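Example (one chain per record):
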Amino acid sequence: MNITRNNVDALNSIVTIELAKEDYQGNVDNVLSNYKKNANVPGFRKGAVPMSLIVKQYGKSVLFEEVNKILQEKLNNYLVEEKLDILGNPLPVMNENFDWDADVLKFDFELGLTPEFTLDLEGKNNITKYNVVADEAMLDEQVEYIQKQYGKLVSKEAVEETSEVVGTFVNEEEGINKDVQIAVADIRTKTNQKKFLGKKVGDQVTVSTKGLFEDDHKLMDVLGIDHDKAHGLEIDVIFTIKEINESEKAELNQELFDKLFGEGVVTSEEQLKEKIKEDAEKQFASQADQKFLNDVYEFLLENTSFDLPAEFLKKWLITAGETVLTEEQAAEEYTKSEKGLRYQLIEGKVMTQYGLQLAFEDIKEYTTKLIKEQLAQFGQTDPEEKTVEDIVARVMTNQEEVRRISEQAMNEKMLALFNEKVKATVKEVSYKDFVKEMYGE
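Predicted structure:
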């Protein structure tokens, strides 16, 4: 047997495997011998069928199968030994005039090679790292929200400026049918608010979605639609009133503070705001970290240049899926998936270039941390180690959970690396402004 490689260019190679008869004939003979022992052919006793008949009937198919097994094994071993990093899978080069009776069988395989490139995380960039703060306006809103949430709802006969209405927004053409509760004060423009004032249970109000709320994100929640659809949406919706209530705000006293945070933890409105600020900014930090990760990768995608074996990948895509594609379909699929492939290659390069690895113990340790955080949310701030270990053991038997947790753990390592290496501009913003930055509005 002989294996050689011809590098067509930096991204494409042809691997040639030559098999002499002694490389495969023994395997073929063994399989045919077993066929002979077990063959049931009319006119012959079991095990007494002539070998010539077995060869005639099964010889070619056994030859194909045994040669294919050897090719797969030898090609895979060769890729490992030569440390070849390939994209997709090797593609056999078709030869319509292939001679299976030749003394030496010669097989060619096309390889698409992973491009070589380097990353510079420490270079000049236009990346912004956001420090999201809970400003005074937001804290006042949250305090008011808490007062309403823990206050009393008083039923009203007719809608007033201070009312909250429960009902259903409907637009059949757009498939909108959403039960909601909204405050009249949250509706933008006095003109729209006046449409609700004085209305009673069972009445309907028709309003345009354009400028109905302060921003499109509120419209997303109220109508139950996605961001792209909400952005710039201008249609009429019908609101049917089911309930009319008015909220009597809860008093900011020790009874409310104890109900929210436990006895004596918070004793004043100032401390309440400090607690809200602390909890909110923890959540904001997580969202800002994710945006920072995404922005670094987007920057690397735009500023890291490397070629791909495009023609090879298009050919590979033709038979890579469950259904065979045409050349045109494969080219279209390649266009759609190229950015994702580049992202994967850049992510892999970050891991190899900076030595980011996850051992089993790393995953187990990270899982333990997540379990303890979850238990703490349910008031178990000091759980028994045996309890945590048992939960971790159960989680680690679920491959899908392990994969998800591994991704989270690696993201944390990536974030630490980017915080250390990437010289981003730090900008302090309110959460409202951060949301605008997130959605480009």
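Caption: The two ends are 64 Å apart (CA to CA).
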